[in-house]
């Protein structure tokens, strides 16, 4: 016969217990992560600065998407993918705005479903950005090896690729709702208390490996282009190669900014997943999140600085909006002026009639 002690039985029951009915605050207490009860100066600064950056991110990436849609010279697969990258950054702006409006003391008011949605939005935007950059790397590899400026990929295939990118993002955003720690409190993350630490390890390692793959692909492309430029002497080919190289530099800067902005956050998630409370990841959470948020602002700046055609299109769109605004203001002033003239005429007429009656 086997005898089981009371302590062992109690521990077994606790480990097999699922806390589906507990609220968000319960899981925060489990990992000793504090939720502010009152607003302080730091909360106001974080939310004010965060919302300001979010507004700029939304407007800047919306401008990129409009520019690619309006300018026919951008109607090629590589620019469609860059436009989708801007869409991912735009979505990231929405995700961070939602985060800013549900952080600090507001966290206590969240249901578990709202908390999962808050995290899922950020996960979707990150996955869409990573998958999109990987698609751009593959597209550039295929075109550069054949020394073409743009690939001959059909539009239907590009649309299908974009749909697959967002489908992957949505799937990865939904994974934490199933892969959580509600049935294993020892597995709870200190950064995201309802997330499983094993999921964070999987998530961080997957993204970091993808970064290394993309860096390796672009390194190979640059070596190939450099070797090709040494072996050619035709002026037309050199001009074409220079155009290819300029586009490659722009895309590489986008990739570099993405890796720099997201690596600290992913490393922090990895340490949290591996070490738990001993990682002290909460100390760096706000800084890593702000750096990651800034990445969505960096891409439009890179486009405007590196691509003359994109910069010209930006100016044309902004000038068109300004002219339209001035034109509408003039029309409004003319309408107001005409109304005031009619009122003066009507008033004088009534006054004359009144004087005649007197």
UniProtKB/TrEMBL annotation:
Q: What is this protein called?
A: Lysophosphatidic acid receptor 2a
Q: Report the membrane topology from the UniProt record.
A: Multi-pass membrane protein
A cellular-component GO term for this protein: cell surface
The record's annotation in Gene3D superfamilies points to: Rhodopsin 7-helix transmembrane proteins (1.20.1070.10)
Species this protein is from: Haplochromis burtoni (Burton's mouthbrooder)
Molecular function (GO) terms for this protein are:
lysophosphatidic acid receptor activity
Residue ranges crossing the lipid bilayer per the database entry: 44-69, 76-96, 116-138, 158-179, 199-223, 244-267
Looking up PROSITE patterns in the UniProt record yields: G_PROTEIN_RECEP_F1_1, G_PROTEIN_RECEP_F1_2
Q: Which SMART domains match?
A: 7TM_GPCR_Srsx
The family database entries (InterPro entries) matched by this protein are listed as: GPCR_Rhodpsn (IPR000276), GPCR_Rhodpsn_7TM (IPR017452), LPA_rcpt (IPR004065), LPA_rcpt_EDG2 (IPR002277)
Q: Which residues form the G-protein coupled receptors family 1 profile domain?
A: 60-303
**Claim: Disulfide bond is one of the keywords in the record:** yes
Q: Where in the cell is it found?
A: Cell membrane; Cell surface; Endosome
The answer to keyword Disulfide bond applying to this record is: yes
Q: Which family does it belong to?
A: Belongs to the G-protein coupled receptor 1 family.
Report the main location listed first in the record: membrane
A Pfam family hit:
7tm_1
């Amino acid at each position: 016969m086997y005898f089981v002690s009371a302590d062992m039985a109690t521990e077994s029951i606790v480990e097999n217990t699922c806390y589906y009915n507990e609220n968000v605050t319960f899981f925060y207490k489990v990992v000793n992560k504090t939720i502010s009860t009152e607003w302080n100066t730091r909360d106001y600064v974080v939310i004010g600065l965060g919302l300001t950056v979010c507004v700029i991110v939304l407007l800047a990436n919306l401008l990129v998407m409009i520019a690619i849609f309006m300018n026919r010279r951008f109607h090629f697969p590589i620019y469609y993918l860059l436009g989708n990258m801007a869409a991912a950054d735009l979505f990231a702006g929405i995700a961070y705005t939602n985060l800013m409006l549900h952080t600090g003391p507001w966290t206590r008011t969240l249901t578990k479903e709202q908390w999962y949605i808050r995290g899922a939005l950020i996960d979707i935007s990150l996955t869409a950005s990573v998958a999109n950059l990987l698609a751009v790397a593959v597209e550039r590899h295929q075109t550069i090896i054949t020394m073409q400026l743009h690939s001959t990929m059909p539009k239907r295939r590009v649309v299908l690729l974009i749909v697959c990118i967002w489908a992957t993002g949505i799937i990865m955003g939904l994974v934490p709702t199933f892969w959580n720690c509600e049935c294993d409190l020892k597995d709870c993350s200190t950064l995201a208390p309802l997330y499983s630490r094993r999921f964070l390890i999987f998530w961080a390692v997957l993204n970091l490996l993808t970064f290394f793959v993309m860096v390796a692909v672009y390194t190979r492309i640059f070596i190939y282009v450099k070797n090709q430029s040494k072996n050619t002497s035709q002026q037309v080919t050199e001009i074409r190669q220079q155009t290819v190289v300029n586009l490659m530099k722009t895309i590489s800067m986008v990739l570099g900014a993405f890796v720099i902005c997201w690596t600290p956050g992913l490393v922090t998630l990895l340490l949290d997943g591996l070490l738990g409370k001993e990682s002290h990841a909460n100390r760096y959470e706000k800084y890593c999140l702000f750096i990651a948020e800034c990445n969505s602002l960096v891409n439009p700046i890179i486009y405007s600085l590196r691509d003359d055609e994109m910069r010209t299109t930006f100016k044309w769109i902004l000038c068109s909006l300004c002219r339209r605004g001035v034109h509408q203001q003039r029309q409004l002033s003319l309408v107001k002026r005409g109304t005031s003239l009619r009122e003066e005429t009507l008033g004088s007429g009534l006054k004359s009639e009144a004087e005649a009656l007197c």
